[in-house]
């Protein structure tokens, strides 16, 4: 049961951090300032507003931290298998949570 709680907490951290960067009012001004400095059509500008896209980049270090700090048994035992697998799963689950938000 602890393992499930642990991964759910990591999922919610990824989802919340993704929303904070891409959609929250508190980060609107820094987000807009960055976008103004980027060339028109920049992939980085798109990334700052796309929760599906940015969640991959937030999930990767979250999965690496989880793998390094957790005592949960790993299914493969190899970081280069487990970390990308968990990161992609966290990113996809974050995208599903985004779809469940009102107005999305």
Explain the overall architecture:
This is DUF1360 domain-containing protein. The chain crosses the membrane at residues 6-23, 44-67, 79-98. Keywords: Membrane, Transmembrane, Transmembrane helix. It comes from Micromonospora fulviviridis. This protein is an all-alpha fold and 104 residues long. The protein is built from five helices and no strands. The protein has helices at 2-22, 28-37, 43-47, 51-69, 79-100. Helix 1 (2-22) runs antiparallel to helix 4. The relative contact order is 0.17.
Describe the secondary-structure layout:
Blueprint: H1 2-22, H2 28-37, H3 43-47, H4 51-69, H5 79-100
Helix pairs in contact: 1-4, 1-5, 4-5
Number of strands: 0
Strand content: under 5%
Q: SS-based structural class?
A: mainly alpha
What is the global morphology? elongated
DSSP helix count? Answer: 5
User: What's the mean pLDDT score?
Assistant: 93
Rg, alpha carbons: 15 Å
Order of helices and strands: HHHHH
Q: Which regions have little confidence, pLDDT < 50, spanning 5+ residues?
A: none
Helix content: over 70%
Largest sheet: none
Give the N-to-C terminal Cα separation: 31 Å
């Amino acid at each position: 049961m602890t393992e499930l709680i642990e991964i759910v907490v990591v999922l919610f951290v990824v989802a919340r951090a993704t929303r904070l960067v891409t959609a929250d009012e508190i980060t609107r001004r820094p987000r807009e300032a960055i976008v103004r400095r980027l060339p028109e059509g920049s992939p980085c500008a798109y990334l700052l507003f796309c929760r599906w896209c940015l969640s991959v980049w937030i999930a990767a270090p979250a999965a690496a931290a989880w793998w390094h700090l957790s005592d949960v048994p790993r299914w493969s035992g190899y970081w280069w298998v487990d970390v990308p697998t968990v990161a992609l799963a966290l990113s996809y689950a974050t995208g599903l949570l985004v779809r469940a938000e009102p107005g999305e």
